[in-house]
Amino acid sequence: MHIGMIGLGKMGMNMARRLLSGGHLVTAFNRTPERINEIEKEGARGAYTIEDMITSLPAPRIVWLMVPAGKPVDEVIGKLQPLLERGDIIIDGGNSFYKDDIRHEVELKPYGIHYMDAGVSGGIWGLKIGYCLMVGGDENIYEYVEPVFKTLAPENGYLYCGKTGSGHFVKMVHNGIEYGMMAAYAEGFEILKTSPYGGSMDLSRIANLWNHGSVIRSWLLELAESAFTKDKDLSSITGYVEDSGEGRWMVQEAVDMAVPIPVISSALFQRFRSREAGSFADKVLAALRHEFVGHGVVKKE
Question: pLDDT-derived band of residue 292, with 50, 70 and 90 as boundaries?
Answer without folding.
Answer: confident
